[in-house]
Design goal:
Layout (H helix, E strand, L loop, with lengths): L5 E4 H6 L2 E2 L5 E5 L2 E5 L5 H7 L2 E4 L1
Parallel strand pairs: 1-5
Antiparallel strand pairs: 2-3, 3-4
Length: 55
């Protein structure tokens, strides 16, 4: 069985977050959309999606 290892740099993941005019951020990863208060939440979301986050 082959298992795919997904990696992403923290800087790249943050670049995917779009600031909302009313505050907070919209972040889309693997087709799922998240509304965030702080971009620091991105690491935990990426790990839940099976990513290894590189800092």
């Amino acid at each position: 069985m082959n298992e795919t290892v997904k990696t992403a740099s923290f800087e790249y993941l943050i670049s995917l977050a779009k600031e909302n005019p009313e505050g907070g951020y919209t972040f889309v990863l693997d087709g799922e959309t998240y509304q965030l208060n702080d971009v620091l939440e991105i690491s935990a979301i990426a790990r839940r999606h099976g990513y290894i986050v590189i800092y």
